[in-house]
Amino acid sequence: MLITWLAAAQASCCSIKIHTAAVLLLLCFCVTAVQGQLASNSNNASNSLPAAATIAVSALGVATAAAAAPPIVTAASIAIAGNAGAIDPPAMVQRLNSSAAQVALLPPANFSAYKVSGELPRLLPWKLLVSSKQPAQSSLTVVTALTLERLNVLEAQCRSWPGGPLTAVIYAPLTATPQQLSGSTQQQQAVAEISGSTPNRVPTPEQQQQLKAIGETVSGVVQRSDALADNACSLTALLVYEIVARDMEDQLPINSLRNQALLLAQTPLVAMLDVDMLASVSLTDAVLNATQAQGLVGLLKGQKRVVILPAFETIPWESPGPGHAEALLHKLAAHARKSGKAELQALIDSQLLQVFNQAVNPRGHGETDYRRWFRSTASTTRSYQVQPKSQRYEPWYVLDRRMALQHPYDEIFRGYGKNKIANVLWLKDQGFEFHVHPSGFIMHRVHPASDAKRAWKGEFRGPEKVPLNTRRLDRMMGVMADRQYKPRVQDITAKCIQQVLGMHAAALKVQTVV
Fold this sequence. Notes:
This protein has 514 residues and is α/β, with parallel strands linked by helices. It has helices at 2-11, 43-46, 89-104, 111-117, 151-159, 178-182, 186-195, 205-227, 254-264, 281-288, 290-300, 324-336, 341-349, 370-375, 401-406, 419-429, 451-459, 468-481, 491-501, and strands spanning 38-40, 53-54, 56-59, 74-75, 78-80, 124-130, 140-147, 165-175, 234-244, 269-272, 277-279, 305-309, 311-314, 353-355, 384-386, 396-400, 433-436, 442-444, 488-490, 511-513.
């Protein structure tokens, strides 16, 4: 059967076009998810904002506000229907307005400030798009973040989550011009007369056109997902940008993106997945099954617990590029996510699949106890608990959305490596229980190495010989041992979380950075 399938897959292979893009540094800001239709409503904000750009915010089929130059601030002014849990739009506009004005006065992000002083990423919104279709289930949102070069991967993930809500934060890099680095453009000088300072993070007209084109590309992704109806997710996509120096382009601000994506989710539960992970059909079925979904919500709601999703990958072939070999592996991954445990085990026995990252980092997922998972029968609907000890354990999991927001990702971690492990270690330190989903799993979809990973590999050849994130994780663990650790997040992000959760500032255990 496997040989027959591979022959069929090989006959239908096709190349995947991957767009190149750099990585940007981001400012955390407050934004909430919206379900249903969004409409442009710029009049609400006109009296409270200076002459500025209005963020292009739309649902499909609704006109977006045009960006005006110079965008001293970016602001969202939207009407939300049927979403009582959302932050009031005027309050969101004011918050975005104030944070963007502060960012405009900062020099473009550079690696020295990040490495020496630990400057946190800062992101600004450009366009928010929300699917016009209602999700088929309202218990679990897949939450992800990605670079522009991974938009085709996002579409594959969306197709693996049919009818379910998926929130994605997509960022676009704007490499600082020499004038932005020096703060001497006529546009910036004009703004300086108003603010009294020199704004260095104001997009030039050319950069605005670049963002507009990217926004149209993202809009096409949402349109295609809607055209697939119940065969794809209900997608909420937020495009963000940041002006950065060239030495910051490879320092992926993934944890800042993750925190913003969590703020977009509206369901009781969330699953923070990398964009290259496909949801299994068994996971989708479990969430659509009312009894199983209720059991999962009951296990996690308001509790310090996570439910781990076992992860698998195709066994790597030599340097899969955007051609025949990669397309065949994509076919295999798409087939595997539809498989039951018996066929999944057969694919592993045939050396076509393996536990994710097993060859490179066996401790990363080994404590999920895959032997026990495979022994459980198809009728098993109860999770089992594991006691992970490894400091390299980094599973993907489902958890209560409010608990996720109360335990945000540490935004000091950027670039490749240790960013997710840092959050796992903190959850363990905070007394979280780790359970394993009895039937659902996720499947990796192969792709070329990212710029962030190539930069990380280069750090081993640098003067310190140890990547910056590894050194930061070591320091974090020392602080954690002294019971002094708090994840670092932007002040505006902390305020957003507090507002969403209705918490007092003292109740949120984070270290805020203005």
